[in-house]
Design brief:
about 260 residues; mainly alpha
Amino acid sequence: MNNTEQKLAAFERLLKIMDELRAQCPWDQKQTIESLRYLSIEEMYELSDAILKNDLNEVKKELGDVLLHIVFYAKIASETNHFDIADVINANCEKLITRHPHIYGDVKVENEEDVKRNWEQIKLKEKDGNKTILAGVPQSLPALVKAIRIQEKARAAGFDWDNRRDVWKKVEEELNEFKNEEFAPEPEPKKMEAEFGDLLFSLVNYARFVGINPEDALEATNKKFIKRFTYLETESKKDGKVLTEMTLDQMDEYWNKAKLL
């Protein structure tokens, strides 16, 4: 592993290259903070894919891309004298020190939950902090991830269930409400959607309460389905069958074989 001096030299090299690209490369010169936004989102998803695959070499590459974007944003902002990379880093250091009073102050904590609770309370007190606890949840987050973050922040503020049995009762309650609307004589689509949303939110809450990350769990199921469906598609084709012309029973034969792999 590299020592501190080598790490600083590597970062300095990246800053130098960024300066050169911004000065000489037509594509890099054209970029703005707005034009980089969707590319940054793509890079984060690529990093997420690498993490899910547990491919650490790929994680290293994707982290490099994310770091490049951070440096790029700061470079663009420095050109209008708004801020530079040092401002970004120093602001982050100050935030970390302020939000860890159990490390850099005399606050005592007993566990992880105390740390989370302190973090949210400090954010509310900061001059430019969020005015409410849930204001810190980005609006553009995917709905499932947003539900997780909403519930985590509410828990950090002390708003949570006492035990898993009560959480599961809430899941059952929401399921019954959805079923009642689904099988009503004249179900209302909007109400069905609302009840289904409540059911999903309660399931996310239960998963969080028992230590399951619902995003990871759903992604694992997605990958499992893709693997089995791809088997069904490729193996049936080898047997001279056309997927769209097969019966469900025929498909199930291949699906059940895929489950054994």
